[in-house]
Amino acid sequence: MDKTWKDNIKSESFWLRSLFMVLFFVVYRIVDILVLLVAICQWLYVLLTGDNNASLSRFAGGLAAYVAQIVNYLSYNSEQKPFPFSDWPEPESNNGSRAKKTTSAKTSKAKKTSRKTSVKKSSSKKTSAKTATENDVKKSSDAE
């Protein structure tokens, strides 16, 4: 065991990885502040417009994926170095992220209007079906 420990201390790859870990920890702290700024900007945008900014959401999704890359590297879950040593991560589309599911105010309003219209249509269909049934009953009783 002592020999392995001594070999690790002398290992160039160990010290190089340690250097990268310190570097990415500093980057992580900077990105942490950037996430706070994006959250504040998004909050202000929602306050003023009533809907979130899709571009900021996509950027925040990319930051989240980047933070995940850094954490995986720092915790030895991945040997792949994060950006700039690899490509900038794309936000995941299958995890339910708001960047992909969030729409503009117009689209949200259109969906709400569409729902209201479909409810009205289904109500009118029920009413017309009821009226048709009543008419059938009247016709059959008139025929008798």
UniProtKB/TrEMBL annotation:
Residues 133-144 have a biased composition (Basic and acidic residues). The chain crosses the membrane at residues 20-45, 57-76. Residues 98-128 have a biased composition (Basic residues). It comes from the Bacteria. Residues 84-144 are annotated as: Disordered. This is Lipase. Pfam families: DUF4389 (PF14333). It comes from Bermanella marisrubri. The keyword Transmembrane helix applies. The keyword Protein transport does not apply. Keywords: Membrane, Transmembrane, Transmembrane helix. InterPro entries: DUF4389 (IPR025498).
